[in-house]
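Audit log entry. Action: structure prediction of a protein-small molecule complex. Ligand: fe (ii) ion. The ligand was supplied as SMILES and no pocket hint was given, so placement is left entirely to the predictor. Protonation state taken as written. Sequence taken verbatim from the request; no trimming, no tag removal. Recorded inputs:
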Amino acid sequence: MTEGQSLPVRLGHDFLRHFYHVLHSARIYRDDNQLIQKSVKSFQSILTDMTVAGDIALVLWRGRFHFGGEKLPYRRDAAGVVGSMLEFFSHRRIGSMEFLQSAKHASRDDLLMFVRLLNDVGTGRENLERFSQKLHKSGLTWVKVFEKLPDDLSGEELQDEDRIYENARNTYFHAVETVREVAKKASQGMVGVRKARRLAQNIVDLIREDSALMIGLTTIKDHDDYTYTHSVNVALLATCLGRHIGLSDLSLEYLSVCALFHDLGKVGIPREILNKQAGLTEEEWEQMKAHPLIGVRQVLGLNAPEALRSRIILGPFEHHLNPDMTGYPRTLFMEKLSLTGKILRIADVYEALTAQRAYRQRSYAPDEALRKMWLESGKSFDPILLKRFIGMMGVYPIGSLVELSDGGIALVMDYPTESERALPLVMRLVREGDAGWRRGGIVYLPDQESSERVEKLSIVRGLSPVHLGINPAAFFLHEQ
Ligand SMILES: [Fe+2]
Ligand SMILES: [Fe+2]
């Protein structure tokens, strides 16, 4: 327990944890199993503790749990459990639960019955009503469950969670439009970057708030306008890496603008060459290789303060150069790459490898892309930065599709605990005939109990989204 926290806050997190465990074990084990007996016992004891001073309510409000009238603060170590419980509540349209003082007299059988009934509640409104009736009939009168109020009932703001998500989504598409606009105008003369600067501040703020969601959004790949979505994805990945290594907010803003415009020079290259199926002719290749310098020329034409412009130039100029200065464009006056250039190089190659582009024979699954890059560490990438990037992304980066040890397929959504990169929070995906895939339950891999009979779930391997016909971005955009 952490010092300085109020009693409800401390109990609230403990309660959620025990509640989560008992719900989880009830889905796996039969009543006589030792593990479930253990988790029911812990649940009983925390219920007794928390109702000692009177009735107490657990309320879900604007995407956060409130316990005993206090909002539970975000705790990184509890994020997995809290996330799963939020999902559990939302899925069943539960807005609050009130535990009456009489809960301390509830027997373990009663508690188990409550947990099993709760697990079985379906998604429709009638289901929750039916559940309340069943509770009443079974004499479980020490708990009351209420439906979630519609968000628009009071006309107040959206839930916290929804707000971040809406903001992230809008920023993403606004960024794509801004890059497109600047790219088009840049070829016609002076264009200002004030808007891009504001956008970069927004990106930095969002990454601070929810970097997992922002990395998730980089699974958006647009075949037709690849250069623009690519640029935004590179900006998100580069800024996340910059934040991971501790750059200041101002440096992150510069890095972000720089990444947004790193491929500005590609705008003049005909789409047929950019999207060419087979190998390029020598002439076409020369044209491709010219895009960094064309980009530099365009940046020089931008209406931006000197300090910003000289930083933005690094993006187009350096992003195809290796640490030993091989690559293109050939340069004789520079001896080493800037930090910005090194970061962009990593973000750029990772994004390009994982892109599903029409002309490419194969696109790499995120874990494969990292492995491939690791083999070229030192030659193509700054080894220390690449190591930090892999550490940040995890073995199976957010947005990866994975096969679980029970044969199921899941999408990596988050790494709630920074120190435990190997075990993410994943969302199961369920195939729905020909209609595609839908969201399944959330599993936080470190947070499972195992027994001799039931193995802990683990990740067996990474899978290619293309082969499975899954678009990970749709799940991050809440389209599925
Ligand atoms: Fe490029
Ligand atoms: Fe690029």
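Audit: result stored. The pocket of fe (ii) ion (ligand 1) is lined by residues 263, 291, 319-320 (CB under 6 Å). The chain has three domains: 7-147, 160-393, 401-476.
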